[in-house]
Write a structure and sequence with these properties.
Elements: E1 14-16, H1 21-25, E2 38-40, E3 50-52, H2 63-80, E4 85-95, H3 99-108, E5 111-113, E6 136-148, H4 149-162, E7 166-167, H5 184-192, E8 199-210, E9 226-229, E10 235-238, E11 246-251, E12 255-256, H6 268-282, E13 287-288, E14 295-303, E15 310-313, E16 323-326, H7 336-349, H8 353-358, H9 378-384
Helix pairs in contact: 2-4, 2-7
Length: 385
């Protein structure tokens, strides 16, 4: 987040640019009697209504942050007095030897279940829905869930205002930088001259129609899980919730784009067709793919080369006065409360005590990991996987 010098004459202690999940959670709690700890420029409400909590993080560095985020989601819901997170089981599946799947199982605390090629295949959970190809396996855990994203951002906005923040929309940003999603590289470069290797990707959120008689079977009420599929095409899904009779099943990733000039209709079939083929093969008889997805929602990822976050001080002439959170690579929303708390402490205190106490190692998320090494943590990630 972007931190200004200590406020005087009724100014602000901290200015947060970008009021999405990371920005709005990063508004520090009031430390003085005067009600002005932060200024937030909210982004437009997210188009995506619900997001899964896992896919399980592939690398062991993420579980401490996931556990911290889970606790903070609960704290925020308790303070707000309502829920934005619906717990569900979670299912990971893919080729038995896939290194990313193996890492997800190991690091996510999942229990491997019987695969389709085993004699007792019909006994594993959700075997009535999924038909795993030969050589595949699946692992389940109780760590899944679906976050109502728009409602979650609104919840944190209301809590920020309650705790003294001043929210300002449509405010011009001239010389400060923070969590602005796909625009992070442009803004940080223009303000601080720092190159962030964050590539915006155009992706597509797809909602498919459940076949008649299968609608309830795919809901959280029936125990249906969030799930992720590894292999040639990375697929993820949430149960049927926000649109009755529809289930969200999407491909992870997308095509590079310019966030200021992207074609909102570009690449639709290229992103939807692999999902349709996956559904037809692995969920036969449960989801109708004829004619494509019923709802298509354009979305953007902010992708780093190693798919790890950027959480760091900008440095240089700004020193520790400006903190940046960016490059959440399609798996950051669920960790919003943890990342926001960390960024707020960095901005206010110059260090993140909560991260240290939770066992979150921030060294992996420094900007400097890309200096002389364009792939950042990727080589290490491959070794670990």
């Amino acid at each position: 987040m972007a931190a200004a010098a200590a406020a005087t004459n009724g100014g602000f202690d901290v200015i947060v640019v970008g009021g999405g999940i990371m920005g709005i959670v990063g508004v520090p709690r009031r430390r003085r009697a005067r009600p002005a700890p932060g200024e937030v420029r909210p982004a437009p409400p997210p188009r995506l209504v619900a997001r899964r909590v896992p896919r399980h993080p592939r690398h062991a560095r993420y579980p401490p942050m996931v556990r911290l985020a889970a606790r903070l989601w609960g704290d925020a819901e308790a303070e707000a007095g309502y829920r934005v997170l619906t717990p569900t089981p979670h299912l990971d599946m893919g080729p038995r030897a896939d290194p990313a799947l193996r890492a997800a199982i190991e690091n996510g605390g999942a229990a491997e279940v019987v695969g389709a090629s085993d004699d007792s295949a019909a006994s594993w959970p959700w075997s009535a829905v999924f038909r795993l190809p030969e050589g595949w396996t699946a692992a389940s855990s109780e760590l899944g869930g679906v976050i109502k994203a728009t409602k979650a951002v609104a919840m944190f906005q209301s809590l920020a205002a309650k705790n003294g923040a001043v929210l300002r929309d449509r405010t011009e940003v001239i010389d400060i930088a923070n969590q602005v999603g796909a625009w992070a590289s442009k803004l940080v470069k223009s303000v601080a001259g720092v190159d962030l290797p964050v590539q915006p990707l155009h992706t597509l959120i797809c909602y498919w129609k459940a076949r008649p008689g299968r609608e309830h079977e795919l809901t959280p009420e029936s125990g249906f899980p969030t799930f992720a599929s590894y292999g040639d095409t990375c697929i993820y899904s949430t149960p049927s919730m926000e649109f009755p009779g529809l289930i969200k099943v999407c491909a992870h990733g997308g095509a590079p784009c310019d966030p200021d000039r992207r074609d909102w209709c570009a690449g639709g079939d290229a992103l939807a067709d692999p999902v349709a083929r996956w559904i037809d093969e692995l969920m036969p008889g449960h989801v109708d793919t004829a004619g494509g997805p019923v709802i298509r929602q354009s979305c953007m990822y902010s992708m780093t080369p190693d798919e790890d976050f950027i959480i760091d001080f900008v440095g240089g002439e700004f020193g520790k006065d400006v903190v940046v959170g960016a490059g959440f690579s399609g798996h950051g929303f669920k960790m919003g409360p943890a990342v926001g708390r960390i960024l707020a402490e960095m901005a206010m205190d110059g260090e993140a005590k909560t991260a240290a106490e939770a066992g979150v190692e921030l060294g992996y998320f420094r900007i400097g990991r890309f200096e002389g090494n364009p792939e950042g943590n990727r080589a290490e990630n491959k070794v670990k996987f």
